[in-house]
Amino acid sequence: MIVSVLLAALLLIGLYVASHRVGGVQAIVALAVLACGIVLVVFPGLTSAIASTLNVGRGTDLLLYFAVICGLFLAAHFYFRFKRQDATMTELVRAIALRGVMPDGPPPSLASRDEFGGSAAS
């Protein structure tokens, strides 16, 4: 019963990933993780065999260590990705702001307005 639920969940995750645009490396990694998940669900004793080969106590511990390492990798990946996006956004905003700077001052239609778009005389 639980095996069929886990397989269905893995297939749904696979369909979800496939429905989004992912690059070549991301698609290969996603398919590899999906295949490993399916193999480990179908053959649960395999985790214990791999754990004993790596001198880890149980297969469950091995999966926990793997999940923690993957979580740390994802946290670092998204941190640096957002940092790169922030730098790109800053450059774009600066370029747009500098494009609006006029060396002779604002045109007459803008010179008569205050900073809120209203008339400066009122």
Largest sheet: none
Q: How large is the share of residues in beta strands?
A: under 5%
Structural class: mainly alpha
Helix content: over 70%
The total strand number stands at 0
* Average predicted confidence as pLDDT: 81
Radius of gyration (Å)? 27 Å
Order of helices and strands: HHHHH
Q: For the record, give the distance between the C-alpha atoms at the N and C termini, rounded to a whole number.
A: 76 Å
Low-pLDDT runs: none
Describe the structure.
This protein is mainly alpha-helical and 122 residues long. Among the domains are: 1-43; 60-99. Helices cover 74% and strands 0% of the residues. The chain contains five helices and no strands. Helix 1 (2-18) packs antiparallel against helix 2 (24-42) and helix 3 (45-53) crosses helix 4 (59-99). The longest helix is centred in the middle third of the chain and has 41 residues, at 59-99. The chain is elongated and about 80 Å long. The mean pLDDT is 81.
Keyword list:
mainly alpha; 0% strand
Detail the topology: elements first, then pairings.
Layout: H1 2-18, H2 24-42, H3 45-53, H4 59-99, H5 108-111
